[in-house]
Write a structure and sequence with these properties.
The chain is mainly α and about 180 residues long. The chain has one domain: Orthogonal Bundle (Hypothetical protein af1432). Helix content is about 60%, strand content about 5%. The chain is built from 10 helices and 2 strands. A two-stranded antiparallel ribbon has the order 1-2. Strand 1 and strand 2 form a beta hairpin. Helix 4 runs antiparallel to helix 5, helix 5 crosses helix 8 and helix 8 crosses helix 9. The radius of gyration is 16 Å and the shape is globular. Bound molecules: fe (ii) ion (2 copies).
């Protein structure tokens, strides 16, 4: 299944079904019909859901991290009249590298996951989904400024920001020191 193959009725059915998944229940994005219609074909696909078995930060799976980045990016992009559909879709796919990065270096000898995973994610995303130029570039450049080439489109900067914002929250909410200082959040 890819983003060109669902009509409106299929989308509505899929949204109803997927909204009951434990990894979506209670999330704000489920109540946002516009968002869900933009991304339902990706949420309802196997390659995307594979990310649930890999941990990204703390106890957040890579799939949950991507949902957070996608929805934060989408809300910013809508507010700013940017291409929020591309932003929402690229956000979901930006970390589709499909391996456990904690053990990746020991297994493969690649100690540069931070630098190399955007290209791996893009390759996987192109294999399973139909992407436009904004989506492709936003996935490839999302680690800027760690990787030196910045995004080409303003939408890409939204994803750069949302990725850092969500990653920080995921790491900090697991930090005992932070919890002791500011409490749970
Ligand atoms: Fe990433
Ligand atoms: Fe990320």
């Amino acid at each position: 299944m890819n983003n060109k193959s669902m009509d409106l009725i299929e989308k509505k059915d899929a949204i109803k079904r997927i909204s009951k998944e434990s990894w979506l229940v209670g999330k704000d994005c489920v109540k946002d019909d516009v968002y869900m219609e933009c991304v339902i074909d990706i949420l309802d696909s196997e390659p995307f859901q594979k990310m649930h078995k890999y941990i990204q930060h703390g106890n957040t799976s890579t799939m949950e991290h991507c949902i957070s980045v996608s929805y934060v990016s989408y809300k910013i992009a809508r507010k700013m009249n940017f291409d929020y559909v591309s932003v929402a879709r690229a956000g979901l796919l930006h970390d589709l590298f499909l391996y456990d990065w904690h053990t990746h270096a020991a297994k493969t000898g690649n100690y540069f996951h931070g630098y190399t995973h955007p290209a791996v994610a893009l390759k996987n995303a192109e294999k399973y989904y139909t992407l436009n130029d904004i989506e492709k570039n936003s996935i490839l450049r999302h680690m800027w400024p760690l990787t030196p080439i910045p995004p080409k489109y303003k939408e890409g900067y939204v994803i750069v920001y949302a990725d850092k914002y969500c990653s920080s929250k995921e790491v900090l909410k697991e930090s005992r020191i932070v919890k002791n200082i500011v409490g749970e959040f």
